[in-house]
Write a structure and sequence with these properties.
5-stranded mixed β-sheet; mainly beta; about 45% strand; 3 helices; about 775 residues
Length: about 775
């Protein structure tokens, strides 16, 4: 009964102690949930070596106060690796048994007995100098237990011969001078170091030659034991590696092929052991020299240039002046290269060996020969240029046609007359070209033939005389208001028979040399004015200030704010004309994405004058005097404004003056055009529009296969067959087109909409792969 009672008491005590431990562990947990309990998970090595290290792995072991190993005093000199690991040195008088850790939480005893192994001892290593490939002898005791021999710096060898007293190991190429350690290869290994260094032969490097070298050829490095070298690093971080370097018999000379990508600069030699040997001598890479181009002048598209010289086999490709992309030679050797002169846009050779053609806009200048290492060499050449032999007629009458004869006239794009009047060539052949002499502004003097490649050639003076038909010597400098009289002074007024504006006759009155012309009400912006005489005619372009809005573009193109999100684009001051307070700065958008946004800044970044999220086809900013002043007078730079944003594409920016039109909805329901379905718009929706009224179609979901056709309500012939943004016939909207399209109604179109041959529809819209969100009418 007493035994049972004692066991019960013992059980109760254990439960109480367990409860206290659990309570203490919980109470000592930190706020992060990490336990403060000291735990021993493992220790070793066991068997261990007296005088070696004994490691303990667990948790919170940095709190251990002492380690008690049987047969010796408590060890308080503890190496703390971290809170998970501690180490102690095993005393020589230690005996086998359980190890105890003394901690603030009590003693922790190991579950297994610490046992000892007969000591692995290294007594000596080969004292003489050894080289990679030689055999190193290690002597000691219990060396038969060794699984690894580790050279400096951590170069391990596992293949060697070993007895209890001796190890013989072949020195690896990566070994360096330093202490050697041997290991029994256990999970927690026993490692013993040699007292002395193993002396390993290292390479020495003294020089490199030649200092000027051609890529692809060899340099020679001199020194000793160069068979130990594993690689070279040339300037530009170009590495030359080799398994069996070309070394002479006594290993004092090493030859290496210089990579074609190697740049000018010093070389670093790397031994197989990893030791680096920087060389002070800098190498200079050869470039092609003694260059001569034949022919070097008078070349025209398609001609072949032969470039001779030295080391031309180093050339990888060739750049011509004003050409972005480099081209490959047609043929190439060390002393000669052949290359084609520009003729057309780049084409890919159909097969290897075909000539590669380069663009038409190559100019005279330096041909640049490129090497793989980035170095270049140049040789000058000039392209064929036009030469004038005669003008016909000479003198020539202003406003009439001029024929210029000579050679290479087919290279000319335009002609610039004295007075800064430039006119494009009408027709051109190799021997002649024709061009119309400006009726106004051109003066007698030298002319310039402007070539397609951007070069200009100065030619002999040309005499220009006033025309014999009626002409205007000086046009008005300002825009003329619509429906007002345009007053002009003319010459040869007796020859005048008719005046046309916008392609048709207009009312005029001639009083002496003063011509009065009535501006038609439909005129607006740039308008053609033609004086028709009995002996010829001349057409001018004048600016008309229309009754509605006058829009002056300041930017046309594409600013992709998807690809270049928040990247600012500058609009130069030079793009802006005269602006007045109340004018609108309009930004046109297309391709709106999710949550589009824009910002407008002054060109010198001094302030932001507009920003917004939006969902419309355009935004208008009403300009104030202060805004105009800041735009046109930046503190620095040449930009009037900067635009940036996201998730949209800008295709035009313009200044709008005049009264904006009123906009009324003709059809407000969404029209989804798919599979060439159609939608009718009742003629009652149109009211009674006047000629010049604009019909606006707001677009979205414009697919790649989009197409539209616009018919009158009786399915007569199409109302719209041509449009600025349309292709003819199918009315396909190009990629990147606008978010809306405007159609100006003529009297004939209005007649067909409001008076169908049958039915009550004014318009029918048919198409595919596009959605019309609404149709509106704009009236001024």
């Amino acid at each position: 009964m007493n035994k049972i009672l004692n066991m019960s008491r013992l059980s109760m005590m254990c439960l109480m102690l367990l409860s206290i431990c659990i309570f203490t562990a919980c109470d000592n947990d930190d706020d992060s949930g990490k336990s403060n309990k000291i735990v021993l998970n493992s220790f070793g090595p066991s068997p261990a070596l007296r005088g070696g290290e004994l490691r303990f792995i667990g948790a919170n072991l940095d709190k251990v106060k002492a380690v008690i190993i049987p047969g010796t005093a408590a060890i308080t000199t503890i190496t703390v690796v971290d809170e998970r690991e501690i180490k102690v040195t095993i005393p020589q008088d230690a005996t086998e048994g359980y190890v105890v850790l003394e901690t603030p939480q009590g003693e922790i005893q190991t579950e297994t007995i610490l046992r000892y192994e007969e000591p692995i001892v290294v007594t000596s290593i080969s004292a003489d100098l050894k080289k990679a490939g030689d055999v190193l002898t290690i002597e000691g005791d219990y060396l038969n237990l060794i699984k690894e021999v580790i050279f400096f710096d951590n170069v391990a060898v596992t293949d060697f011969t070993a007895t209890r007293k001796k190890i013989e190991v072949v020195i690896p190429v990566a070994a360096q001078t330093g202490k050697i350690r041997v290991s029994n290869g256990a999970e927690i290994p026993i490692e013993v170091y040699s007292e002395k260094d193993a002396k390993i032969v290292a390479a020495t490097v003294t020089a490199i030659a030649p200092e000027t070298v051609k890529p692809g050829e060899t340099v020679t490095i001199t020194g000793t034991d160069l068979d130990l070298i594993g690689s070279l690093i040339f300037a530009g971080a170009v590495i030359a590696e080799f398994e069996e370097p070309n070394v002479n018999e006594d290993n004092t000379e090493l030859t290496v092929v210089v990579p074609f990508e190697a740049q000018d600069g010093a070389v670093t030699v790397i031994a197989k052991s990893g030791i680096e040997y920087p060389l002070e001598t800098a190498l200079t890479m050869v470039v092609p020299s003694n260059l001569k181009a034949t022919p070097d002048s008078g070349l025209k598209p398609g001609d072949i240039i032969t470039i001779t010289g030295e080391d031309l086999d180093l050339v990888t490709d060739i750049n011509f002046p004003n050409i972005a992309d480099a081209v490959k030679p047609i043929s190439q050797s060390a002393t000669e290269i052949k290359v084609a002169v520009p003729v057309m846009l780049p084409i890919k050779p159909e097969k290897e060996g075909d000539e590669e053609i380069i663009p038409e806009d190559a100019r005279s200048g330096d041909i640049v020969l490129n090497m793989a290492n980035g170095k270049t060499a140049t040789v000058a050449y000039t392209v064929l240029q036009p030469s004038v032999t005669a003008y016909n007629p000479s003198p020539v009458m202003a406003g009439s046609e001029l024929t210029i004869t000579g050679t290479n006239m087919d290279l000319v794009l335009s002609v610039t007359f004295k007075g800064e009047q430039t006119v494009e060539v009408t027709t051109a052949t190799e021997s002649m070209l024709t061009v119309k002499v400006p009726a106004v502004g051109a003066e007698s003097g030298v002319i310039f033939l402007n070539m397609k490649n951007g070069e200009s050639v100065e030619c002999a003076p040309l005499d220009i005389i006033a025309p014999s038909f009626c002409f205007i010597p000086e046009l008005p400098s300002a825009a003329v208001p619509v429906e007002e009289l345009l007053v002009l002074e003319v010459v040869n007024e007796d020859k005048l028979t008719q005046v046309n504006m916008r392609g048709g006759p207009t009312q005029y009155l001639l009083k002496g040399t003063t011509l009065y012309v009535l501006i038609p009400s439909a005129a607006n912006g740039a308008t053609d004015l033609t004086l028709i005489s009995s002996n010829g005619e001349v057409t001018y372009t004048i600016q008309v200030l229309g009754a509605g809005v006058q829009e002056t573009p300041v930017f046309e193109g594409f600013i992709d704010m998807f690809e270049n999100e928040w990247s600012a684009v500058g609009i130069p001051i030079a793009n802006f004309g005269t602006m007045s307070p109340g004018d609108r700065l309009r930004v046109y958008f297309t391709g709106l994405g999710e949550d589009p946004e824009y910002q407008l800044w002054y060109g010198d970044w001094s302030g932001k004058f507009a920003e917004s999220k939006f969902s419309a086809a355009f935004i208008d900013v009403v300009l104030t005097a202060e805004m105009i002043q800041s735009m046109m007078n930046p503190a620095w730079g040449s930009d009037a404004m900067l635009i940036q944003g996201k998730h949209c594409i800008v295709y035009k920016i313009a200044i709008r003056a005049g009264t904006e039109p009123t906009e009324s909805v003709v059809f407000g329901n969404e029209i989804v055009l798919a599979g060439w379905n159609n939608q009718s718009i009742p003629l009652a929706n149109f009211g009674t529009p006047a000629p010049g009224t604009t019909i606006r179609f707001y677009l979205k979901n414009v697919g790649s296969n989009n197409a539209m056709q616009i018919f009158p309500g009786d399915w007569g012939s199409q109302l719209v067959t041509e449009h600025t943004f349309y292709d003819v016939d199918a009315l396909k909207i190009p990629a990147g087109g606008p978010l809306y399209l405007d159609v100006d109604l003529t009297a004939e179109m209005i007649q067909r909409i409001l008076n169908p041959a049958w039915g009550s529809d004014g318009m029918i819209i048919q198409g595919d792969d596009v959605t019309i969100s609404k149709i509106t009418m704009l009236k001024y």
